[in-house]
Structure formats: structure tokens, C-alpha cells
Amino acid sequence: MPGTHPRLRAAILRGGGILIFLLLAAPAHAARINELAESTLSGRMVRFFTFQDPSLRYALLGSMLLGICCGLMGAFLVVRKLSLLGDALSHAVLPGVALGFLWGMTKDPLAIFIGATVAGLLGAGTVQLLRHTTRHKEDASIGFVLASFFGVGVCLMTMIQNVPGGNKSGLDKFMFGQAAALGRGDVLLLAVVALLALGAVTVFYKEYTITSFDPGFARSMGLPVQVFHYSLMLLLAFAIVSALQAVGVVLVTAMLVIPAATAFLLTDRLGWLLVLSAVFGMCAGAIGAFFSFVGRNLPTGPFMVLAAAAVFTAAILFGPRHGIVARWWRHVSRSARIRRENTLKSVYHVLEDEGFRSEQVDARELAERRRETIEEAQAQLNTLRRHGLATLSGDGISASLTPEGWQRACEIVRNHRLWELYLTNAAQIAADHVHEDAEKIEHVLGEETVRRLEKRLNNARRDPHGRLIPGLEDIRLGAGARPTPPQPTGYGAPDPPAP
To answer: What is the pTM of this model?
Structure first.
């Protein structure tokens, strides 16, 4: 498949391998996934991982396939901000399920699939029609379709239950799902839908990407945006209908949204979003089948949703970029770094006030400068020592900056004073009103921004208060020898008048 996304090609190969392995596994002895209540827990676990039972193979494979379908389609729903539309379509297919049964008064998978797909597409079309022909926005249109179609479906299902033999039709499983009832035909249907979804997303990956993120630009390129939109809706309807038997109308939305929402927390790339969403959906299906098999008559669909929710919770808590723990740790690390840099700046100010005649700073002088106790100042100096930014004297009450500490101190002071000068020159802000803003910006200015500021300020050497601004040469001295005593380019030497 030239020109397609490599991760999607790898996912297709892996999915095909799993499908062949489970379908060709050796025939087994127990008939249904919930008929093993008499065996021990360890025995059921062994039977699960050896795939001995055909009902288990069908339930496991079907659950994993629907996880892949729902994960892929859900990813596009999430990036297009259409998650509620998936909920509406999952409820809108219920009348089609009932009509498919009424067609031959039998639970024919093909008839039910066709009826549910037509109902889902009709629901999607109704949403678009209401959006373009009325004053209602998309949320109101989706709410109308969800409630009205679902109400019609419940009425039809109730009528079927009242027909002689209707209560044994098994249609009630479409409400809440029963993966254990999946047969060979259901699994083959799921496999066809999964391969269709994978193939469509792989072949039209670029087109789906651009129409999802920038439909206006896609139109300018001549792409049929509406065609790709409705093709996604068709694939979404296929995924929903094929998943009904396992998770039901009520829970299929969770399998569409939760894996995709989990992947959305972990990556900003659509390719990885699709792969992770499909993987999370597949894992949720496998975990749901596992607990349903080893438990005693436990439902598969709800456990699939709970597994997906558990992964989502883990991503919220421990995600490397957007996780709560990661954000908390970044906040703590940033706060600690700012405290160290403020201490370095205070050490620089003490040395500057003394004309840089000494390299050492006494804890008492630092405490007076920072308006802290001597114990707090000593704790800050110890923190600098632990990070290799300072060395303490034998008595521990004075410290000298290391070359790295001196360099960072000069950079912070330079950033602060350059920003003050920039605000007074470019923004015409009074010199006595720029200190607080510079206190914040000094910790985030990058070297490229500093170079641009220096160029714009003609490499000025004094800030608005007449204090010397450390230059590049002064900062580089921190990597080697300390400037003792100050050289002509140092901080204690005479300097040309400020411009």
C-alpha cells in the first residue's frame, strides 16, 4: 500500500495475524463463555489463555475487532469534535435493528446489519438536514435525532417482545450487549467491517486528515469534503452496527469515545492517535472478554467499557504531557528552578553591591538581601550546592558560585535588565513600573529572544536604572575563570555613558 501511513500498515498486519490465529485455533470443549462457573478460577484463566473454547474465541476475537473499529472511527469523531454525533447514531440504529428482525421475523445478521446501517445513515442525514434548514445548531439537532430515533426503536422492540415467540428472539441483547452470544457469522461480519475501516483509513489517510483539520483548505484544493465526511459516517454506522451485539446500543458510544479520548491525551499526531485509539479499543475488548470468562456470569460489554475507562483514568493521571502527575511535577520542578534562579540573582546583587571584590557571599548578607532568616538563606545555599551551582565554605555560612552558577546568575540578571530596558524604550513604560514584569519574564527568555533584544537595543550596557547589563563575554567567563578583579569588560569597571 504505497503512500499510506506505515503505522496503519503495521496495524493491519498485526490484526490479520490475530484473526487467523484465533479462527484456526484448535476446537474446544465448553460451548459458551458463561458456562464455566463450575471450574476453578485458575482453571478458567488457563482455559482463557489457551483459547480452548470456541465461544471464548468468538467472544474474544469479536471484542477485539469491534475495539479496532470503534477506536479508528472514534479517533475521527474526537478530532472533528463530533463525539455527541456518535452517541446519536448509536441510538438511531435501534429502529433499524427492529425492522431488520421484522423483515423475516428471524435474527438474521445480514438483515439486521442492513436495517441498522440504513437507520444510522438516516439519523446522520437528519442531523445535517436540521442544521441547514432550521435555526437549530448541531447539538440541538443531535439531541432530537437521539431521542426520537431511540424512542421509535424502543417502541418497535416492545412490539416484537409482545409477538408470540418475540421474547425469545434475542433482540434484547442489542440493548446492553452480550459478547458471549457472538457466533462465527458475527465475527466474520466484524472482521469485514474492521478490514474495511482499516483499508479506507489507510488508503485515504491524507484526505481524511486534511478534511478533518481544515475543510476550507481541502475545498480550495478541490477535495470533495462532503464525500469524505459521509464516507466516514458510513464507516461509523458500520462500526456501530457491528458492535451492537457485543456491547449494545447503550454502551457502544463509550467504545467510540473513550479509547480515542485516551489516545488524544497521549499524542498530538493523527497517525499515532489512530494507532493508539485502535490499540486501546482492542485491549479494552480483550480485558472485557477476560473478566467475563473468568468471572461468574459477568457481562462482557460493561467490563470492556470499564477497562477503557481505567486506561483513560491512567492517561489522565500519568500521561507524560497532559497527565495530572506530570503537570504537577513540572509545576514543582519549575517552582524549584525559579527559587534557585532567584537565589543566584540575589547572590549576584550582593557581589555587585560589593564591587565584585570578593567571590564569597555570606548567608547573613544573602538573608538581608532576600529578607529571609539566616536559616532560610543557608537552606537556599545548600540547594545551590546540591545542584552544582555553588560551593560552601568549611563553616557552611558562606558560599561561592561555581562557573555554572555564575553563568546562570549572569543570564538571569541580563534577562531581567534587558526586559526592563525593552519595556521602557519600546513600550514607553515608566522605569519604576517594569520590575514586576521583568521578575516573571527573566525565567523564560530563550537565547534567541535575548539576541534579538540585544540587537534591537543596540547592545546597550545599562538598564533604565543605570545598572550594568551582563554581556555575552561576561557570561562566558563563568565557564572558566571568574573575573577577579573585574576586567575592563567586567561589572566593576568604568563603562561608557548609557545611550
So the answer is: 0.72
Q: Tens digit of pLDDT for each residue in 468-494?
A: 888 776 666 554 334 433 343 433 334
Q: What is the DSSP string of 125-162?
A: HHHHHHHHHSS--HHHHHHHHHHHHHHHHHHHHHHHHH
Strands (E), 348-461: 360-362, 390-392, 398-401
Edge to edge, the sheet with strand 360-362 lists 360-362, 398-401, 390-392
Beta strands in 387-458 (DSSP E): 390-392, 398-401
Q: Is 262 buried (19+), middle (13-18) or exposed (0-12) by CB count in 10 A?
A: buried
Give the Cβ contact number of residue 222 at 10 Å.
6
Torsion angle in degrees (nearest 10) through CA of 380, 386, 389, 394: 80
The pLDDT, as a whole number, for residue 327 is 92
Grid cell of 302 as nine digits? 460493561
Model confidence over 75-118: pLDDT tens digits? 998 888 888 778 788 888 888 888 888 887 777 777 888 888 88
Distance, in Å, from the CA atom of 287 to the CA atom of 304, rounded to the nearest integer, reads 6
As a residue count, the chain comes to 499
At 339-389, the pLDDT tens digits run 999 999 999 999 888 888 888 888 888 888 888 888 888 899 999 999 999
Which domains are assigned to the chain? Answer: 6-322 (1.10.3470.10), 338-401 (1.10.10), 409-479 (1.10.60.10)
What whole-number distance in Å separates Cα of residue 230 and Cα of residue 151? Answer: 25
Angle between helix 138-162 and helix 94-104 axes, rounded to 10 deg: 30
Give the contacts of 392 (CB within 8 A, at least 6 positions apart). 381, 382, 385, 398, 399
Cα gap 453→447, rounded to integer Å: 10
Residue 125 contacts by C-beta under 8 Å, 6 or more apart in sequence?
none
C-alpha cell at 204: 485515504
Strand ranges for 302-442 from DSSP E: 360-362, 390-392, 398-401
Residue 485 near residue 356 (C-beta atoms within 8 A): yes
CA distance linking residue 282 with residue 263, whole number of Å: 13
The Cα-based distances of 109 to 240, 271, 285 in angstroms read 14, 33, 21
Q: Specify whether the CB–CB gap between 291 and 76 falls below 8 A.
A: no
Which of 97, 239, 243 lies closest to 170 in space, CA to CA? 97
At position 416, the amino acid (one-letter code) is H
Query: Scanning the structure block, which residue is given the C-alpha cell 485515504?
Result: 204
Cell of 197: 475501516
Q: Residue 333 and residue 339: Cα distance in Å, rounded?
A: 10
CA dihedral sign of residues 33, 38, 41, 47: negative
Rounded Cα gap, residues 406 and 393, in angstroms: 17
